[in-house]
Amino acid sequence: MKTIDMQTGADGIAVLSIDVKDRSMNVLTPEFLEDLSAAVERLATDDAIKGAVITSGKESFLAGADLIDLVETFEQRTNAREVYEWCRGYQQTLRRLETCGKPVAAAINGTALGGGLEICLACHYRVATDRPKAVLGLPEVQVGLMPGGGGTQRLSRLIGIEPALRLITEGRDVAPAEALQLGFIDAVVPAGEEVAAAKNWLRQHAVSEQPWDRKGFRIPGGAGLMNPAAVQTQMVGMALLQKKTSHNYPAPVAIMSAVYEGSVLPMDKALEIETKYFVSLLMSPVSRNMIRTLFVSKGAADKLVRRPKRPKRREVKKLGVLGAGMMGAGIGYVAAVAGMKVVLLDTTVEKASAGKNHARSLLEQRVGKGRMTADDAAAILDRITVTGNYDELQGCELVIEAVFEDRKVKAAVTAKAEAVISQDAIFASNTSTLPITGLAEASERPQHFIGIHFFSPVEKMPLVEVIVGEATGDIAVAQALDFVQQLRKTPIVVNDSRGFYTSRVFGVYSREGMTMLAEGVNPALIENVAKNAGMPVGPLAVTDEVSLELSYHILQQTKEDLGEAYVATPADGVLRLFVEQLGRKGKRTGAGFYDYGEPAGPRGKRLWPGLMEHFPPADVQPTKDDVRKRLLYVQAIETARCLEEKVVTHPADADIGSVFGWGFPPYTGGTVSFIETEGLRRFVAEADRLAEKYGNRFKVPDSLRTMAANGATFYGAARTAKSRSAA
Ligand code: NAD
Question: Residue 155 — φ and ψ, nearest 5°?
Fold first, then answer.
């Protein structure tokens, strides 16, 4: 066996040590599944073996399925029956393990997730080590799946339906101490003592039957249709779940169904139920979209798939940040947390200090919650220097400007910084809308000028959009990507354009909401349908958050830049009315499309009643389906335009950018996966209908129409074209 080392001692105890070669962590590869099955068979049939310990030869126990393998294996199997048989294989190996008549103990020496934890649950005894950072959990729901190796049935039988469901539907992992408290492991021992502890149990207390295979077994807390507590949990739980997921995510519902249906059946039948639901999820586009974008593509982006090969990796040790406002302060904070020295510069030291205070209060919150020691917080804060003097920028490998969104101001700070920093330092702009190529005109060395676009709030948002201007060189791209990786954020690389990719597409979402408002669509309908469709915030609420004033400012700037070419939309009039006449400039000023009253927070937030007066609702309201389509299609079509114009050069970047940048619903896999899941032909036909009814912004670009006619797809075309690494 290549992935399991099996040694039987004189005492008859076999130690199975999992070590999947060529992998930094153990994962369920097809080879491992075969080896495990062979090992279990030997355990069951070799009379010399009296019992077994399962552990790992690596630092972690086993981190779950290899999702790339899983999708590939699945794609080779075309019908549900084949997929079902294949899924049953692993589950049956574990069932054989727990019913083979010999006691088996899991010595969990580190993190055990997904299929890894499922092996442990099938053992008769589980002892884990208290290694820091080791976690145990069933996180499959996070990529649209559920445990398929008996996890739903065993965990609920061990700790009760409600606690098990909470863990599995949230995909939450826990430290060994909490697992012990919850009752799904039996003991926690210091690292290195786990195998001895497992052997000890085998020698002294060995049991070779699971509680659920004993006569008269009852699930802790009860189960079944006649059990009031269980029925209550199911009914309330299901309703809450549907509210939370708006019927967009099938996995949590499948998990609940599998647990409830399985809970009244003997184990073997219950496992069949689990597989039935598991296969239904694997066959649905949601899990495959989520796996591709949230796991495979994001993983590749985090490993800097888009980075030019040269120059070699260069870390930023000293970062300059110009402008200590909302964005600059946030960028300074995350850089200091990542270990960089930060020079935070504003027009005055006082303003720069206000930016540092932002970092201070974020750190205080972390210390207050016990997530950081006061000493560590102080060290981070110490790394931030505040100043109004450009000379302090000397020695910075990278300077990012986050001053006002104004070309002249940006040009001035670029020149002042370049006069101080070295020739090979990189200068970046955090502009959200101004084309990089134009801003680079103020630079003496435009090959070292690049866009590094953060999202607000910087400390929370995981994405960074790196923008390549016409003159930007490879060194700048490489340095920018290395820097994003230092911050442990996810980068996408896009080419220059007004609003680049994310602000541009996000902008059409916000404008579609305002356009509907202007047409007399009930604002509550707009906002609620958006959230039901899976957008984190309705288009009117999000425009309030960005600020109507900023949107209006961008609109004016765009009009000025484009001149005759500018195409007005009804949203323009809405913005003008709110900013110029009504003075309702957004959430920061306490009034926008919403009122922000008492109590502060979500409960005090209400749609402004005056909306009805300014935009009387039309007698005939559109269907929910039309509102939903308008809001999602408008973003997907703008994405297709970005791909046609080569602003975005790979569908994976578009998908990652949409999900992690502005919260396009994760169940879709992103704007491109959304089009592909609808089917290109159907998508184009539907967009034509929307264009006819609501306007030309729904007209799809020619490239998409041609692709649809030829039966092609974005991902298919990207696979045959050159690799994603080419920017
Ligand atoms: P802000 O108004 O909060 O901060 C701007 C800061 O720049 C202020 O502290 C100001 O004093 C300082 N400043 C102005 N002129 C300066 C100069 N000549 N020298 C030094 N400092 C100067 O603005 P913000 O929201 O932090 O936005 C900053 C930049 O980031 C803008 O380009 C904006 O488009 C972009 N951006 C904003 C967001 C967002 O959500 N707010 C998101 C992404 C990008």
Answer: -65, -40
Question: Pick the catalytic residue: 247, 453, 614, 650?
Answer: 453
Stretch 677-706: mean pLDDT, rounded?
A: 97
Confidence at 75, pLDDT banded by 50, 70, 90: low
H or E element, residue 477: helix 474-486
Ligand 1 center to 410 CA (angstroms): 10
Are 672 and 701 a contacting pair, CB within 8 Å? Answer: no
Q: Higher-confidence residue: 38 or 245?
A: 38
Query: Tell me: the pLDDT tens digits for 119-156?
Result: 999 999 999 999 888 999 999 999 999 999 999 999 99
Give the model's confidence band at 380: pLDDT under 50 very low, under 70 low, under 90 confident, else very high.
very high
pLDDT at residue 237 tops 80? no
For 41, the token pair is 């068979």
3-state secondary structure of 499: coil
Paired strand residues for 490: 463
Rounded Cα distance between 546 and 594, Å, is 13
Whether 614 is catalytic is: no
Residues within 6 Å of ligand 1 by CB:
322-328, 345-347, 351, 402-405, 409, 412-413, 430-432, 453-456
- pTM over 0.85, yes/no: yes
- Pairing, β 384-387 against β 605-607: unpaired
Cβ atoms of residues 472 and 436 within 8 Å: yes
CB atoms within 10 A of CB 389: 11
589-596 contacts, C-beta under 8 A, 24 or more apart: 589/547, 589/549, 592/540, 592/543, 592/544, 592/547, 592/548, 593/517, 593/523, 593/540, 593/541, 593/543, 593/544, 593/548, 594/540, 594/541, 594/544
Give yes or no for residue 404 having a pLDDT over 80. Answer: yes
Rounded to 5 degrees, what are φ and ψ at 348? -135, 160
Q: Is 724 helix (H, G, I), strand (E, B) or coil?
A: coil
**How far is the C-alpha of 481 from the C-alpha of 108, rounded, in Å?**
37
pLDDT of amino acid 722: 58
CA nearest ligand 1 atom 4, residue: 325
Distance CA 196, CA 199 (A): 5
**3-class secondary structure, 498:** coil
